[in-house]
């Protein structure tokens, strides 16, 4: 029973991780950039949800309708103004730029909102569905999982069927070839980063009812998101989705069977193990990158 | 030969500085110790990051290894601090070898990510174990070494200076040697380097090892100096980033870039932290102490130094990616 | 007929479903200038990558100096004496021209002084002495190719693999490089030449292998190859400058 409980909780929370991972993977695929501000973008989503709730009295899950376009726009602008300039620069400079942007975001939040953690409690924040077999399913987790699935399905359709989506995929596979085919790769980068930001912010908003909201909250998700991307295969959206669920389950199992103090360590050790034995991840192509 | 002379002159000048400034300014000596330490840390990082082009984002792991190993051995076993520092170097070497063997066969972003993962694993482990002091950290009451009074600042000033000089000398020696040429080739183009007979993993590991050992010595010195350490002081990601930023701003891959970076950033951070800038603005009448701007600055500038770091980082990458010295840099 | 320094035995390379090289077999005699030609996408560079350890071989053997070198690491391949240049030049851009060649020279010496001497000598051989202090990244493409040649020569290779070294060069530059290659061959090095420029190939190669779509199409002397109807047909899709 303990195992099943841990499994279910892990899958549900894995959904949110998957969302964050997919956002990062998309950016990596299309732009070949590791976005170290990803965690801070999640943090922004958390605060957006918090303020939508406390100031506008909108339920965080409903607020998504607002948060998604706003954060997409934010990411789009961020790419156009900053990230775009280093797209051909060495990887390390790209990483440092995103780190710098992340530092600005988290520390501006620190100055604006102070480091006192905010708590977003909805009427259902601690509700749980108790099944007959004794499983306790957290309602917010379940809702986030459902929403995540919907968003992932929409994203999948978008990438598979729409012309922009196909252009994004083409750019992701081979930037030069895409450019030669007439695709505006610069615009694709901005769109990809916008989507990545929106997904990160959404993930943040989804966990806002169950997490302490504070300016540095995004940092623990940063390395986890990278782990998910590497596990799934850098640039593979499907891989990131699967990877997210796996990480959610691994973390849940570690928290249950070892302790919550060590769950992050387990995830990071898993990350190193993947690098050691299968660096291309589950769905990536072999070749060292 | 020229660089060796400059290093020697720099060493001489810096060594005489405390005698000139005198004992009445322990605050300034303290700042200078921080400058020397950050310069040493950045220079050590530069060996793997600047010359080999492998950006380690988890160098705090080596700093913490030195600091924690030293203090644990002293406080639990009352061992001589030098043995503690040597043991710290061994631990740092192990971490470097493990990290290197996992990632140096791969290309791209993996080393950066793996270095963070390793550092975080170590940080979280130290936080969770009892013998490392957990969240409370480790406090050392008293330390003596051969009768030297380790409660004063001067021994650490000279200790950090010595470490910096050693690091600069090692860097300069490497640069002119086969290893240095090979590391730079790896940085420029790994495939080309490989096709010219360079064993990528071997040389990257070598550079990381040297860098880790030097970094751990700094950690040991720091631990003996402050005599209190915890994970947020010596194992934090922020420290790793500060080290990189210092090198970037001064000029990554150059000999004096990290030193220049430290000379600029450490006093700036201190000025922000101690509210010196806020006070100065008030003193010069630019801002009224009681105005809302004044109050805001007074309360927040102290916390803003990381924000300023972030802004400097972004500006630096966008407009000065080779750092200040990079502007003047010729071939050698 | 001198003994073969390089034997390619039924080498194949598959990238998933894509068969880049299929069952290719040929031998290169010592101290010869041997050409490897074929239309775009024929698998020439892939074959080079297989031989030099940059890409794992799916099946077959590469035998260099009677030693099977399948899947050796690229740096090991260099150390046993087989060194390559790159179709897209790879200068070490932030280093000087002299430093670039010194990196090559360090393959056979550990001393910076000795490496410098070798580098100076090789730069003189290719005619780049005047550019010694210049940043490698600032050179024109023709000079970058010469630099790459000087760099690999500094490793004192037994066999040189040249991947389209005449690509992007004008006639004077091409003639200059070809003469250099002849000189290098005189010194005892074996040369394997991927080239597109048929004039260059026929003027300098003693024997030629033709690849098409990963398969060996023909092998022979330049005159045999240029009069081979299958070869001519293969090139009638483009990429053949007769």
Automatic annotation (TrEMBL), chain A:
<feature type="transmembrane region" description="Helical">
    <location>
        <begin position="190"/>
        <end position="213"/>
    </location>
</feature>
<dbReference type="GO" id="GO:0022857">
    <property type="term" value="F:transmembrane transporter activity"/>
</dbReference>
<dbReference type="InterPro" id="IPR001851">
    <property type="entry name" value="ABC_transp_permease"/>
</dbReference>
<feature type="transmembrane region" description="Helical">
    <location>
        <begin position="6"/>
        <end position="29"/>
    </location>
</feature>
<keyword id="KW-0812">Transmembrane</keyword>
<dbReference type="GO" id="GO:0005886">
    <property type="term" value="C:plasma membrane"/>
</dbReference>
<feature type="transmembrane region" description="Helical">
    <location>
        <begin position="64"/>
        <end position="83"/>
    </location>
</feature>
<feature type="transmembrane region" description="Helical">
    <location>
        <begin position="135"/>
        <end position="159"/>
    </location>
</feature>
<dbReference type="InterPro" id="IPR052157">
    <property type="entry name" value="BCAA_transport_permease"/>
</dbReference>
<protein>
    <submittedName>
        <fullName>Inner-membrane translocator</fullName>
    </submittedName>
</protein>
<keyword id="KW-1133">Transmembrane helix</keyword>
<keyword id="KW-0472">Membrane</keyword>
<keyword id="KW-0813">Transport</keyword>
<feature type="transmembrane region" description="Helical">
    <location>
        <begin position="41"/>
        <end position="58"/>
    </location>
</feature>
<dbReference type="Pfam" id="PF02653">
    <property type="entry name" value="BPD_transp_2"/>
</dbReference>
<keyword id="KW-1003">Cell membrane</keyword>
<feature type="transmembrane region" description="Helical">
    <location>
        <begin position="262"/>
        <end position="279"/>
    </location>
</feature>
<feature type="transmembrane region" description="Helical">
    <location>
        <begin position="95"/>
        <end position="115"/>
    </location>
</feature>
<feature type="transmembrane region" description="Helical">
    <location>
        <begin position="225"/>
        <end position="250"/>
    </location>
</feature>
<dbReference type="GO" id="GO:0006865">
    <property type="term" value="P:amino acid transport"/>
</dbReference>
<comment type="similarity">
    <text>Belongs to the binding-protein-dependent transport system permease family. LivHM subfamily.</text>
</comment>
<keyword id="KW-0029">Amino-acid transport</keyword>
């Amino acid at each position: 029973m303990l195992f099943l409980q841990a499994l279910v909780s892990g899958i549900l929370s894995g959904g949110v991780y998957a969302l964050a991972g997919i956002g990062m993977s998309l950016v990596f695929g299309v732009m070949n950039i590791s976005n170290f501000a990803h965690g801070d973008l999640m943090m922004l989503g958390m605060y957006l949800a918090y303020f939508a709730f406390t100031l506008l009295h909108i339920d965080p899950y409903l607020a998504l309708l607002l948060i998604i376009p706003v954060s997409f726009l934010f990411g789009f602008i961020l790419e156009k103004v900053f990230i775009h300039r280093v797209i051909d620069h060495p990887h390390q400079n790209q990483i440092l730029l995103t780190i710098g942007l992340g530092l600005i975001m988290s520390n501006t939040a620190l100055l604006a909102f102070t480091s006192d953690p905010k708590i977003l409690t909805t009427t259902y924040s601690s509700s749980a569905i108790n099944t007959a077999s004794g499983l306790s399913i957290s309602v917010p987790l379940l809702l986030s999982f459902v929403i995540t699935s919907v968003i992932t399905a929409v994203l999948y359709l978008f990438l598979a069927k729409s012309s922009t989506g196909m252009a994004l995929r083409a750019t992701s596979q081979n930037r030069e070839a895409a450019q030669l085919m007439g695709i505006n790769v610069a615009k694709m980068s901005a769109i990809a980063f916008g989507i990545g930001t929106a997904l990160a912010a959404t993930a943040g908003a989804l966990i806002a009812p169950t997490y302490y909201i504070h300016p540095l909250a995004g940092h623990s998700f940063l390395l986890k998101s990278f782990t998910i991307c590497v596990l799934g295969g850098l640039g593979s959206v499907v891989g990131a989705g699967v990877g997210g669920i796996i990480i959610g389950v691994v973390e849940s199992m570690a928290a249950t069977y070892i302790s919550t103090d060590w769950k992050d360590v387990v995830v990071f050790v898993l990350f190193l193990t993947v690098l050691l034995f299968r660096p291309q991840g589950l769905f990536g192509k072999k070749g060292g990158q | 030969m020229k660089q060796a002379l400059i290093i020697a002159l720099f060493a001489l000048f810096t060594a005489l500085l405390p005698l000139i400034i005198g004992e009445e300014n322990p605050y300034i000596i303290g700042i200078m110790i921080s400058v020397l330490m950050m310069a040493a840390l950045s220079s050590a990082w530069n060996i793997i990051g600047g010359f080999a082009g492998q950006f380690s984002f988890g160098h705090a792991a080596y700093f913490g290894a030195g600091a924690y190993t030293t203090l644990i051995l002293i406080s639990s076993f009352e061992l001589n601090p030098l043995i503690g520092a040597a043991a710290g170097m061994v631990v740092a070497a192990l971490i470097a070898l493990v990290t290197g063997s996992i990632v140096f066969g791969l290309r791209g972003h993996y080393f950066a990510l793996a270095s963070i993962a390793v550092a975080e694993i170590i940080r979280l482990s130290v936080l969770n174990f009892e013998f490392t002091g957990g969240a409370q950290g480790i406090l050392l009451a008293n330390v003596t070494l051969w009768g030297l009074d380790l409660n004063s600042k001067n021994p650490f000033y000279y200790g950090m200076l010595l470490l910096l000089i050693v690091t600069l000398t090692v860097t300069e020696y490497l640069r002119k040697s086969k290893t240095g040429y090979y590391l730079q080739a790896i940085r420029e183009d790994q495939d080309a380097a490989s096709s010219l007979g360079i064993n990528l993993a071997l040389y990257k590991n070598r550079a990381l090892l040297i860098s880790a050992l030097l970094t751990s010595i700094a950690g040991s010195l720091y631990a003996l100096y402050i005599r209190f350490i915890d994970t947020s002081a010596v194992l934090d990601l922020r420290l790793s980033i500060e080290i990189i930023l210092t090198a970037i701003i001064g000029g990554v891959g150059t000999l004096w870039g990290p030193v220049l970076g430290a000379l600029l950033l450490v006093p700036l951070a201190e000025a922000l932290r101690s509210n010196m800038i806020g006070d100065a603005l008030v003193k010069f009448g630019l801002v009224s102490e009681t105005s809302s701007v004044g109050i805001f600055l007074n309360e927040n500038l102290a916390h803003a130094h990381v924000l300023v770091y972030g802004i400097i980082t972004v500006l630096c990458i966008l407009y000065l990616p080779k750092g200040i010295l990079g502007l003047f840099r010729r071939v050698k | 007929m001198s003994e073969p320094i390089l034997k390619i035995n039924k080498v194949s390379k598959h990238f998933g479903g894509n068969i880049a090289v299929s069952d290719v077999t040929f031998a290169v005699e010592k101290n010869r200038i041997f050409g490897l030609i074929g239309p775009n996408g024929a698998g020439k560079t892939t074959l080079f990558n297989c031989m030099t350890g940059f890409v794992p071989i799916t099946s077959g053997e590469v035998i260099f100096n009677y030693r099977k070198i399948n899947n050796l690491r690229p740096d090991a391949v260099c150390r046993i004496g087989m060194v390559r240049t790159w179709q897209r030049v790879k200068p070490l851009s932030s280093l000087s021209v002299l430093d670039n060649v010194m990196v090559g020279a360090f393959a056979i010496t550990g001393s910076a002084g000795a490496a410098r001497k070798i580098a100076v000598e090789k730069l003189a051989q290719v005619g780049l002495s005047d550019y010694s202090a210049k940043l490698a990244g600032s050179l024109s493409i023709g000079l970058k190719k010469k630099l790459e040649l000087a760099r690999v020569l500094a490793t004192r290779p037994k066999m040189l693999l040249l991947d389209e070294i005449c690509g992007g060069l004008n006639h004077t530059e091409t003639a200059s490089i070809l003469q250099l290659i002849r000189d290098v061959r005189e010194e005892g090095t074996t040369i394997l030449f991927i080239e597109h420029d048929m004039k260059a190939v026929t003027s300098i190669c003693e024997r030629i292998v033709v690849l098409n779509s990963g398969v060996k199409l023909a092998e022979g002397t330049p005159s045999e190859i240029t009069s081979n109807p299958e070869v001519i047909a293969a090139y009638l899709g483009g990429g053949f400058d007769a």
